[in-house]
Predict the 3D structure of the following.
Amino acid sequence: MKLGVVGLPNVGKSTLFNAITKAGAECANYPFCTIEPNVGVVAVPDYRLDKLGALYQSKKITPAALEFVDIAGLVKGASKGEGLGNKFLSHIREVDAIVHVVRCFDNDKIINVSAVVNPASDIETIDIELIFADIESVTKKLARVKNQSKSGDKKYIAELEFVENLLARLEKGVPVRDQELTPEEKEYIRDMFLLTEKPVIFVANIGENDLNKPDNDYVKAVRAIAKKSKSEVISLCAKVEEELASLPDEDRIMFAEEYGISESGLSKLITVGYALLGLISYLTAGEKETRAWTITKGTKAPQAAGKIHTDFEKGFIRAEIVNYDDLIACGGSISTAKERGLWRSEGKDYVFKDGDVVLFRFNV
């Protein structure tokens, strides 16, 4: 999973990025501090891996990975190239979901791009620029489809009608993610790489003094917008998250308790991100390695096997599966799980579930 961290300048994007990746991205109190996107890969915490690794005495434990891309602050006019906008927008095309950081704190010492802090206006600014960029992409597509439709082919005529309607909705300010599209229509837009199609997680970046308090008015405004667009919201203080991330484990736990923080910003983003993108993890375990593999909900056995290696998918025979909780209840014993009928042999139509512990049988 690849998440792009976006927002207006000086809202706390790079601070949040530092906190969740410990990558030390440059942070400064001026716009466009980040020009080339900083990239950080973090391990997805999974308590099940350590337990399985201990049971199997694994030499290596490999968690699933999550990639964060810190994209420079967008400004009004980005879609027309303002503030290196076109370059920044191209970086957004490459991510699976957008983490939109919104300033929800007052601090006169930190420059704000507007005269006052206004989350609704800030969100609208970013949304408009992404929509403008999509309008440009759809307009180019429309010209191509118009030429193709002149052949009289019903397929192109149907596609032309859809693209025209899509453009009309975008011009009314409706992001693609808020539009109900059929599977066929989703195929039509696949090659356009539209920015407003991507799911969004809003991060309401609050001040230190607002921790463990009811949502301030700024956060409430973000939640209201997210509800309308079927997006997700998490609230955190990026500055505190960054401070905690720089501490040794023991000190981090102690200070997190003092701040009343029970879950890290990274953990919140992972939980929400997996849910938003419909992701789950299955597990493989053995003496050589215990590992988590990320797949989409609804993935069938051969395609899940293909995550490990294409040969596993091509030569798939069956998947031998036991649920993680069932395996632990059996003391980690495969033979006990088999005796209790918990170890199953599944074929090509089996749909994987989160926490499946798997041994693939294949032949190439």
